[in-house]
Amino acid sequence: MATEVTDVPERERFEITVDGELAGFTQYARRPGLIAYVHTEIDPAFGGRGLGSELIAAAVAAARSEGLEVMPFCQFVRGWFEKHPEELDLVPAERRKQFGLPADA
Hints:
Elements: E1 3-8, E2 13-18, E3 21-31, E4 34-42, H1 51-65, E5 69-72, H2 75-83, H3 93-96
Parallel strand pairs: 4-5
Antiparallel strand pairs: 1-2, 2-3, 3-4
């Protein structure tokens, strides 16, 4: 199973493909200095393979490499940050409470 995560700016989303077939995406909105992840979907045919986590890990890594703050409006993305507290520094401390995330990271 070959997976690939790609930023598709014209659709404002990161997409994950499996063997070239679209398996899911995370929708975003960009503003100067930040990216807000607003919705994530994985096709049920591809469920249970950890693709959502792989997708969000790549999207968060891209935000870090671009020096962007992250606003995890999407529930799935918030859950990913709960499981990866080492990445919480990307979410501004003053906004973490709004997302139900710990203020100290």
